């Protein structure tokens, strides 16, 4: 089913502050990457026997979804 128009009117959204990035963003990225290696999501360290067995690769950092959603302004 395809709707030809918006089924309801979206209210305006006023945000009284400027968009900013969390000053802990880079530390959170470093921590997330270390955690993903520890959990086996990114596999082992390069050169180790389990290097290629990770679920994801280092593109885990891209795109920076947390940054995309937090920096939007309406």
Describe this structure in words.
With 74 residues, the chain is mainly alpha-helical. It has a domain at 25-70. The protein has helices at residues 25-39, 65-70. The longest helix has 15 residues, at 25-39. InterPro entries: Isoprenoid_synthase_dom_sf.
List the helices and strands and how they pair.
Blueprint: H1 25-39, H2 65-70
InterPro entries: Isoprenoid_synthase_dom_sf
List keywords for this structure.
mainly alpha, Isoprenoid_synthase_dom_sf, 2 helices, 74 residues
In summary, what is this structure?
The chain is mainly alpha-helical. The chain has two helices and no strands. InterPro entries: Isoprenoid_synthase_dom_sf (IPR008949).
Which structural class do you get from the secondary structure elements? mainly alpha
Low-confidence parts: 70-74
Percent of residues in helices comes to 25-40%
What proportion of the residues form beta strands (DSSP E)?
Answer: under 5%
Note the total helix count: 2
Q: What is the oligomer described by this structure? A: single chain
Largest sheet: none
Q: What is the straight-line distance between the termini?
A: 29 Å
One letter per element, helices H and strands E, the order comes to HH
Radius of gyration: 19 Å
Shape: flat
Per DSSP E runs of 2 or more residues, the count of β-strands stands at 0
Mean pLDDT: 69
InterPro entries: Isoprenoid_synthase_dom_sf
């Amino acid at each position: 089913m395809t709707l030809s128009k918006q089924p309801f009117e979206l209210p305006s959204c006023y945000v009284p502050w400027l968009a900013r990035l969390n000053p802990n963003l880079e530390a959170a990225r470093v921590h997330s990457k270390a955690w993903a290696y520890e959990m086996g999501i990114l596999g082992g360290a390069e050169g180790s026997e389990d290097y290629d067995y990770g679920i994801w690769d280092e593109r885990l950092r891209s795109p920076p979804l947390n940054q995309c959603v937090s920096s939007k302004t309406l």
